[in-house]
Write a structure and sequence with these properties.
Shape: globular
CATH class: Alpha Beta
CATH topology: Rossmann fold
Number of domains: 1
CATH architecture: 3-Layer(aba) Sandwich
Number of strands: 11
Strand order of the largest sheet: 3-2-4-9-10-11
Strand content: 15-25%
Length: 263
């Protein structure tokens, strides 16, 4: 699959006072008598479906003991993310466009935030409070693609309802551990671990890597640190960007999935 090249924002769009995001992405548990829930949130489904990925990851999760909810395409809205903690998932896999928000010119750009895409088309009249507070971003994949709402760290901490209950979050997307801002927001909201790549990733590569990662967590039941190390040893760096898989916080590295969802 073709990579979607990282594009820097040259000017702030005149239609909105907020900077836009240009994405760098290419185009229930066994330890409990009551089955816990896991979620696969597939924002990419509308344009880049991967039914084999969904089927394989679902099987891995169900064999572990999770009840699996799959949310795809237009289900992935601002309000969906607003309610996400209240759904009670112990593991969340985000297959999504994501990336670093870049403000300025090509010669002097500044990264001012990390964002997860929704599938909700951007409108300057929708969600005015969250836009004014800087919780929602105007996000696009490349220069000539449609604008969507993207959620940033402040939306996670300020507008998501409820809290995550020792949830492990895995991002099958770009740059969500470029810095720790978004990971910190999820852990402040109750997540026990956040696993993501630090740069642009090719979609085929990251789907394969996420499947391997889930096998390590759910089948081999090794620690987060060994899962991340094993995934990088087997899959290697992203073939074009050399993106690295990371986890947050560091203390989660010594724990298995069983331990992390039980904390």
């Amino acid at each position: 699959m073709k990579r979607c090249l990282l594009v820097a924002l040259v000017v702030v769009l005149l239609a909105s006072p907020w900077p836009a995001l240009l994405c760098g992405c290419s185009a229930s548990t066994s330890h409990s008598s009551v089955a816990a829930k896991a979620a696969i949130i597939d924002q990419l489904y509308s344009l880049h479906p991967n039914e084999e990925f969904i089927a394989e990851v679902t099987t891995i999760l169900e064999d572990y003991g999770f009840e699996v909810d799959v949310y795809q395409g237009d289900e992935v809205t601002v309000d969906f993310y607003r309610q996400l903690p209240s759904y009670g998932h112990k593991l969340i896999i985000l297959r999504t466009h994501s990336g670093a928000m870049r403000l300025g010119s090509q010669d002097a750009e500044t990264i001012v935030g990390i964002c997860l895409f929704t599938n909700e088309l951007y409108s300057k009249t929708k969600h005015p409070k969250e836009q004014l507070n800087g919780e929602l971003l105007r996000a696009r994949v490349v220069e000539d693609s449609p604008d969507f709402f993207g959620i940033g760290a402040k939306f996670v901490t300020s507008s998501m309802k409820g809290s995550f209950d020792s949830t492990v979050v895995v991002v099958d997307g770009c740059s969500c551990l470029y810095n720790e801002e978004l990971a910190e927001a999820f852990t402040e909201k109750g997540a026990s671990a956040f696993i993501a790549w630090d740069a642009t990733v090719d979609l085929d590569y990251v789907d394969r890597a996420t499947i391997y990662l889930m096998r390590q967590l759910c089948v081999e039941k090794v620690t987060i640190e060994k899962t991340v190390e094993g995934t990088m040893n087997v899959l290697g760096l992203d073939p074009e960007s050399n993106a690295i898989l990371k986890y947050y916080p560091l203390q989660s590295g010594s724990k298995t999935l069983d331990e992390l969802v039980a904390d």
